[in-house]
């Protein structure tokens, strides 16, 4: 039996390759993501252990929740120095710096930090060119910043710190051990100590941390304990090794997410792969019915027949897993290379490693998926009575009632899971629900395929070959349905995301058009990150005084803690102006003026918290002790300022930064907005991170990030679609083999090669477009469900990405043409006589 | 008609061999034959005699190793795939032993398939004559799976006739039928030749089938060895029995 199976497998190499490809791609993604994250993790661990190589013990102020830590004082350094066993204790100053490039744009990284420090001369950094900074207007640059920005010793460089743009003279460039330009793609500069303290911490004689080295004979742990004992509870004292591990772990936590995302897409790829393998095996088994029946009539048991099919699946799964694992290692290594070089992280890669997890998951996934997909057709094959199979009879169309009922139930189950998932914000339930719903829809597709295929086919069947192609695609509804369903998965996911993003864009547009009565919006980069760019208050005063400006206000914002809850707070400069421009309608109380110690919030947030006018709320601001506020105003729900607490202007002093992060300008009636924009823009000339935009520009900027998200998802899901295309090729190729005699007949009675190819192309396009239509329908449903669930999050409008949806249809038709090429050529090249005599 | 007056198809010193060198097998060894217009010709011979190969070569389904094949005024030998395909579509009709029909098409669609492929209009009057002759009027909307074997072969006959080809080639058309269905099909082929003037060439090994033909050609070892005009089944059988004793000049 074993030998017979292997023989049959090897005799159909094409079939083997086609059914294995889907598995190979899925496994490649799985192992690739494991290899990539493993490599990056080890690289980051190396990075941090070298970053803290010169640090035996590090002292930093103890972090309290929601509160900015008090910087360290010179006294603390003196205290550390007095501890026995301390060889040296150096105060370090560190803080965010955004360097401005020679093109007057801020230089960015893809995730690596940009920071400044005090030049201590005791760290691992070594001056490569020039000398250390000595005067207040002098800096040294990290070699990576110098090379990315094209700076040389003697150049001038503009830097943004806690203060607006300041220009410095570059006196030197430093590098790390071994001539490395950076540790991990970070951009760094170093000032003299007083300048660093002023610009980075905003305070004289302040330090971020103390780097301590141990004297000979003192262990790091002993030193840590001694320093901790001396300083008391207000300080965090850690060994360099512990710190390195902590920071590496933090990064690796982020990488884990990255890994999950990649594995998610691998999952989708495999999910689609299952459809294809299932279909391939169904067709193969159908074609082998006679062979299997012969085995049965010679005395093979049902178990042996099942075993033979499952064994075939096992062998295919095993081979595909091996190839997929190999390809995955290559892909992982390649991605790591890209990550370290193209990504601008300049990360020193640790050697490419193949973790056990990659090997185990590859084989488990590859083999299990293939065998599962093969079991159903195997069971069906074993049920066929030998005599029935030996007789020359086309497999009759089995009724679709059972499969349809099961499909409906599965869709309902998936929908329910999805509903609960949204309700309880459980990602597992949401994704589970979506996958189950996909299976359900796939089970329903055979029923749908009859009317849909004939509808789609009608558009393409103006000639005889077209008509034949259409009839062929309607011939086996199950086969067509599963092939189309594989394509459906990828397209529906992309469509779903597009619907959500389009709806969000439309909501933002409506919001901007209807509810924000402002003409100009001044905002900084990085609104979505922790610390957006901001500007000084006196600039806002200048904006107000600009010719043509009717009124203007701005706000500082920060996260605040209410008990254990992180909340978002703003402190506007002019609450009355905000009320008018945002059209805030009083629900309870009145907003203007907001007295010290009062706060305002939207009604839905008040309802969620159970607060009413007069309630007292204790908030922990970053730079102050906990403070109690009284609710003074609750405004009727609007789309703006959702979930925001409005605090009096005085609260800004206790924020991490009291500068203005966003400002809004109303222009005097009759004055062209563009003119005023031109007059306001120069006020921010020294701050390249701040943009002045009119409303439509603001909407465009806000929604432009959606395009990036969509593009990323499209790229990743392209793999799922690629696998689906393989599925179409597979189905067509197997159908061509199955219909060899028919093709021979058609050629004999005068069908030209080109006509044969057109016939197969039409069949392929019908299947692909059917899949795309299904995908669009399911995607719209998923998108609408998500929009419905996010209604409270501000997506109030429903928008359909019509253009994109039409594009997907066109792409699907194109994909159909591409998928048909090889099977069509094969069909056209058939030798007429051989084909007619084909068994 | 012109140069080939009275001849629907002819083979001139046709050679056909498969393989090369020592393994070469000669299927046709210098066959020359003219198939007269409006006649029903049967090609007979034991299996391996080359009768099917001769038909395939005559019909443009297979190329020849040497010699020439003509259908009407068209020289088949040397045509490229496109020319051969169009020739088969426009000038030749086919009836195979089995799997003659496309399962996705109705009987009517199967009958008009060659015309549809060529983008030609159906001659409605002729279509009706053919359909009535084969007696399929009430079966036109049926799919092949809903038809009996004899009905399927009659559909195939109608398809071969409906485009009025120069020659209809039938390859063991009754091989898979019971005797009554077979007789119906053969009778129909005979009538087509006599009443409609359709040239028909049939390959068969069944003496009874051959007895319906106007002319029977006997092949042995790739060469024509005998010929009978309007023979009875007994004569054909008798000739077949004695074919073994006929000397074939060796190559």
Question: What do you see in this structure?
Answer:
The complex is a heterodimer of chains A (839) and B (251). With 839 residues, chain A is an alpha+beta fold. Chain A folds into three domains: 54-250, no CATH class; 408-515 and 703-839, no CATH class; 534-686, no CATH class. Chain A is built from 24 helices and 22 strands. In chain A, strands 3, 4, 5, 6, 7, 8, 9 and 10 form an eight-stranded mixed beta sheet that branches. The longest helix of chain A is centred in the first third of the chain and has 48 residues, at 240-287. Chain A starts with a helix and ends with a helix. Chain B is α/β, with parallel strands linked by helices and 251 residues long. Chain B has one domain (38-60, 79-245): 3-Layer(aba) Sandwich (Rossmann fold), CATH 3.40.50.300. In chain B, 34% of the residues lie in helices and 25% in strands. Chain B has helices at residues 51-58, 81-91, 107-111, 113-117, 124-134, 149-162, 179-196, 207-210, 233-242; strands at residues 7-18, 25-36, 40-44, 66-71, 74-75, 92-95, 167-171, 200-203, 215-220, 223-229. In chain B, the strands form two sheets. A six-stranded mixed beta sheet of chain B has the order 6-7-8-3-9-10, sandwiched between helices. In chain B, strands 2-1-4-5 form a four-stranded antiparallel beta sheet, with helices on one face. The model of chain B has no long low-confidence stretch (mean pLDDT 87). At the A-B interface, α14, α21 and α24 of A face α2, β6 and α4 of B.
Record the SSE blueprint:
The complex is a heterodimer of chains A (839) and B (251).
Chain A: H1 2-10, H2 13-51, E1 57-61, H3 74-81, E2 86-92, E3 94-96, E4 98-100, E5 114-118, E6 126-130, E7 138-142, H4 143-149, E8 156-160, E9 166-175, E10 187-191, H5 193-201, E11 209-214, H6 220-231, E12 235-239, H7 240-287, H8 289-297, H9 302-341, H10 356-383, H11 386-390, H12 401-423, H13 427-460, H14 464-473, H15 477-515, E13 520-524, H16 537-545, E14 549-562, E15 565-572, H17 575-582, E16 586-589, E17 598-602, H18 603-609, E18 616-619, E19 627-635, E20 644-646, E21 662-667, H19 673-680, E22 690-694, H20 695-738, H21 740-748, H22 753-789, H23 802-829, H24 832-836
Parallel strand pairs in A: 5-10, 7-9, 15-20, 17-19
Antiparallel strand pairs in A: 1-11, 1-12, 2-11, 3-5, 4-8, 6-9, 7-10, 8-9, 13-21, 13-22, 14-15, 14-21, 16-19, 18-19
Chain B: E1 7-18, E2 25-36, E3 40-44, H1 51-58, E4 66-71, E5 74-75, H2 81-91, E6 92-95, H3 107-111, H4 113-117, H5 124-134, H6 149-162, E7 167-171, H7 179-196, E8 200-203, H8 207-210, E9 215-220, E10 223-229, H9 233-242
């Amino acid at each position: 039996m074993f030998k017979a199976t292997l023989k049959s497998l090897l005799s159909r190499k094409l079939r083997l390759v086609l059914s294995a490809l889907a598995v190979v791609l899925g496994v490649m993604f799985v192992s690739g993501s494991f290899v990539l994250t493993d490599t990056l993790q080890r690289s980051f661990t190396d990075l941090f252990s070298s970053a803290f190589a010169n640090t035996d013990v590090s002292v930093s102020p103890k972090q309290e929740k929601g509160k900015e830590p008090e910087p360290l004082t010179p006294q603390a350094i003196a205290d550390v120095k007095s501890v026995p066993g301390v060889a040296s204790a150096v105060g370090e100053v560190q803080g965010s710096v955004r360097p401005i490039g020679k093109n007057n744009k801020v230089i960015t990284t893809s995730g690596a930090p940009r920071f400044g420090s005090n030049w201590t001369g005791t760290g691992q950094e070594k001056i490569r060119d020039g000398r250390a900074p000595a005067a207040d207007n002098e800096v040294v640059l990290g070699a990576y910043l110098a090379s990315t920005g094209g700076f040389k010793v003697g150049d001038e460089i503009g830097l943004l710190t806690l203060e607006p743009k300041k220009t410095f003279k570059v006196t030197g460039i430093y590098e790390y051990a071994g001539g490395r330009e950076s540790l991990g793609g970070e951009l760094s500069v170093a000032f003299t100590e007083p300048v660093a303290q002023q610009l980075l911490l905003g305070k004289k004689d302040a330090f971020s941390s103390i780097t301590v080295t141990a004297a000979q004979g003192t262990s790091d742990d002993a030193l840590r304990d001694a320093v901790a004992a001396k300083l008391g509870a207000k300080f965090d004292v850690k060994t360099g090794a512990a710190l390195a591990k902590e920071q590496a772990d933090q990064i690796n936590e982020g990488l884990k997410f990255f890994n999950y995302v990649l594995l998610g897409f691998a999952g989708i790829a495999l999910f689609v792969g299952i459809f294809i393998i299932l279909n391939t095996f169904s067709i193969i088994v159908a074609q082998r019915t006679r062979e299997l029946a012969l085995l049965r009539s010679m005395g093979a048991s049902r178990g042996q027949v099942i075993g033979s099919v499952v064994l075939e699946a096992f062998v295919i799964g095993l081979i595909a897993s091996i190839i997929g694992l190999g390809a995955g290692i290559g892909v992982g290594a390649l991605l790591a290379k890209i990550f370290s070089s193209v990504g601008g992280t300049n990360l020193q890669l640790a050697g490419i490693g193949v973790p056990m997890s990659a090997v185990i998951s590859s084989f488990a996934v590859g083999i299990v998926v293939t065998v599962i997909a093969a079991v159903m057709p195997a069971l069906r094959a074993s049920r066929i009575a030998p005599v029935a199979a030996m007789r020359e009879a086309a497999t009759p169309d089995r009724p679709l009632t059972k499969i349809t009922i099961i499909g409906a139930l599965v869709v309902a189950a998936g929908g329910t899971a999805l509903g609960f998932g949204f309700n309880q914000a459980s990602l597992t339930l949401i994704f589970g629900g979506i996958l189950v719903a996909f299976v359900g829809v796939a089970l329903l597709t055979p029923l749908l395929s009859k009317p849909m295929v004939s509808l789609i086919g009608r558009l393409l069947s103006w000639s005889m070959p077209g008509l034949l192609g259409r009839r062929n695609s309607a011939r086996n509804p199950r086969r067509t349905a599963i092939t189309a369903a594989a394509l459906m998965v990828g397209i529906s996911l992309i469509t779903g995301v597009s619907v959500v993003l389009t709806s969000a864009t439309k909501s933002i547009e409506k919001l901007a058009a209807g509810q924000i009565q402002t003409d100009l919006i001044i905002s900084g980069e990085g609104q979505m990150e922790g610390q957006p760019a901001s500007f000084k208050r006196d600039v806002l005063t200048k904006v107000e005084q600009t010719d043509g400006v009717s009124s203007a206000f701005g706000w500082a914002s920060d996260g605040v803690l209410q008990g254990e809850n992180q909340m978002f707070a703003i402190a506007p400069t002019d609450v009355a102006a905000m009320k008018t421009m945002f059209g805030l309608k009083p629900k309870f109380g009145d907003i203007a003026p907001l007295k010290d110690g009062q706060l305002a919030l939207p009604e839905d947030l008040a309802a969620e918290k159970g607060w009413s006018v007069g309630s007292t709320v204790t908030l922990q601001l970053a730079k102050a002790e906990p403070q109690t506020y009284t609710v003074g105003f609750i405004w009727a729900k609007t789309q703006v300022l959702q979930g925001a607490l409005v605090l009096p202007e005085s609260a800004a002093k206790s924020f991490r930064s009291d500068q203005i992060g966003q400002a809004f300008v109303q222009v005097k009636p009759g004055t062209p907005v563009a003119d005023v924009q031109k007059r306001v823009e120069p006020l921010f000339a020294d701050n390249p991170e701040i943009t002045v935009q009119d409303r439509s520009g603001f909407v465009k900027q806000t929604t432009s990030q959606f395009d990036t998200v969509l593009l990323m998802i499209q790229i990743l899901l392209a793999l799922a679609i690629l696998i689906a295309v393989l599925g179409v090729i597979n189905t067509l190729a197997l159908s061509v083999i199955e219909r060899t005699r028919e093709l021979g007949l058609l050629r004999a009675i005068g069908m030209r090669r080109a006509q044969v190819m057109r016939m197969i192309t039409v069949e392929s396009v019908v299947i692909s477009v059917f899949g795309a239509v299904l995908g669009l329908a399911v995607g719209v449903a998923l998108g609408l469900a998500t929009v419905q669930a996010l209604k409270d999050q501000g997506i109030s409008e429903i928008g359909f990405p019509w253009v994109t949806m039409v594009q997907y249809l066109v792409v699907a038709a194109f994909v159909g043409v591409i998928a048909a090429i090889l099977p069509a050529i094969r069909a056209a090249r058939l030798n007429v006589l051989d084909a007619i005599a084909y068994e | 008609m012109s140069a080939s007056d009275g001849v629907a198809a002819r083979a001139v010193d046709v050679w056909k061999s498969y393989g090369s060198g020592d393994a070469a097998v000669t299927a046709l060894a210098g066959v020359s034959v003219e198939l007269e217009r409006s006649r029903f010709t049967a090609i007979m011979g034991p299996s391996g005699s080359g009768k099917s190969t001769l038909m395939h070569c005559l019909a443009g389904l297979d190329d020849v190793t040497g010699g020439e094949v003509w259908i009407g005024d068209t020289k088949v030998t040397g045509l490229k795939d496109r020319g051969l395909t169009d020739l088969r579509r426009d000038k030749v009709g086919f009836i195979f032993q089995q799997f003659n029909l496309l399962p996705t098409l109705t009987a009517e669609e199967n009958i008009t398939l060659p015309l549809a492929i060529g983008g030609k209009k159906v001659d409605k009057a002729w279509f009706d004559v053919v359909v009535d002759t084969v007696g399929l009027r009430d079966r036109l909307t049926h799919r092949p799976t809903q038809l009996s074997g004899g009905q399927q072969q009659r559909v195939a006959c109608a398809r071969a006739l409906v485009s009025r080809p120069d020659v209809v080639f039938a390859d063991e058309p009754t091989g898979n039928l019971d005797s009554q269905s077979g007789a119906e099909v053969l009778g129909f082929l005979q009538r087509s030749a006599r009443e409609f003037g359709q040239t028909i060439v049939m390959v068969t090994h069944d003496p009874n089938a051959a007895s319906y033909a106007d002319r029977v050609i006997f092949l042995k070892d790739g060469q024509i060895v005998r010929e009978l005009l309007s023979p009875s089944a007994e004569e054909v059988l008798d000739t077949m029995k004695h074919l073994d004793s006929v000397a074939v000049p060796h190559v």
